[in-house]
Amino acid sequence: MPSEAATALAILAASGAAVGAVQFLPPLTAYEAPMGRKDAQGRARLDELSYCRANLPGVDCGCFAQKAMQVMAQDSARVRGWSYTDRWDLALSQAADSCR
């Protein structure tokens, strides 16, 4: 009897660990930028200068485009399971604030 209980407990623990591990898998769908063109790797790329001219009055669009491209091009290590700010949102906030 004790071995059956230990086996059942081990199966229960393994099942719980498997279910918990699934939440750390990357999503099956990927975000694609709402407007823009494709870069060399085939990813959607925004036209930062056009976006600035159309949506951000009072911002130096040359400065905005340069800073936004720097933020978008920066590759940083990602830890699976952590949530990160969308790169475009980060570029938009940093570039718009520093180019007013």
Describe the structure.
The structure is a single chain. The protein has a domain of 65 residues. The protein contains 4 helices and 2 strands. Helix 2 crosses helix 3 and helix 3 packs antiparallel against helix 4. The radius of gyration is 22 Å and the shape is rod-shaped. Keywords: Signal.
**Treating each run of at least 4 consecutive H or I residues as one helix, how many helices?**
4
Strand content range = under 5%
Euclidean distance between termini CA atoms: 74 Å
Q: Supply the helix-strand structural class.
A: mainly alpha
**Using DSSP, what is the number of strands?**
2
Largest sheet: spatial strand order: 1-2
Helical content stands at 40-55%
Outline the low-pLDDT stretches.
Answer: 32-37, 40-44
Rg, alpha carbons:
22 Å
Order of helices and strands: HEEHHH
Short overview:
With 100 residues, the protein is mainly alpha-helical. It is built from 4 helices and 2 strands, in the order H-E-E-H-H-H. It has a two-stranded antiparallel sheet.
Supply database-style keywords:
100 residues; mainly alpha; two-stranded antiparallel sheet; 2 strands
Layout of helices and strands, plus pairs?
Elements: H1 2-22, E1 37-38, E2 44-45, H2 48-55, H3 61-73, H4 87-98
